[in-house]
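Translate sequence into structure tokens.
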Amino acid sequence: MGKYFEDINVGDKWTTPARTVEAADIINFAGISSDWNPLHTDEEYAKKIFGGRIAHGLLVLAIASGLTARGGSLRDIEDTIIAFLGISSLKFMNPTRIGDTIHLEEEITNKRETKSPERGVITVKWTIKNQKGEPAMEAEASSLVRRKQ
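Result follows.
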């Protein structure tokens, strides 16, 4: 069984395995999202602004969501999580480029009980970093987690 609300503490940290962002990821995401912005799909256009094509910010967010399941906080609460509640204060700091290898660093920043004695809410700060240690994205994600009965 995964960690319960009571087993999680403010300050707990995880670092996930890394993943390399490929050109195919960007094209596939453009197809799924219908976001064919030339910053992501036109090398010559993107060179003028970013020196080359960059990943969609929401693709980076989606990868972060997958990385937490592979080796972050979500892996530790996969049996006790009730619901993913949302993301707040999302910001992008540096572009993610084709060939960047990114990982997710997580830290519990808040936890609170709810009216129900069966559940609590945890807030996790997400920071995506590239292979150089540069931050690409930060966000806060909140989840509803089971409490011990």
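Note: The beta strands are 13-15, 19-20, 81-92, 101-113, 119-129, 135-146.
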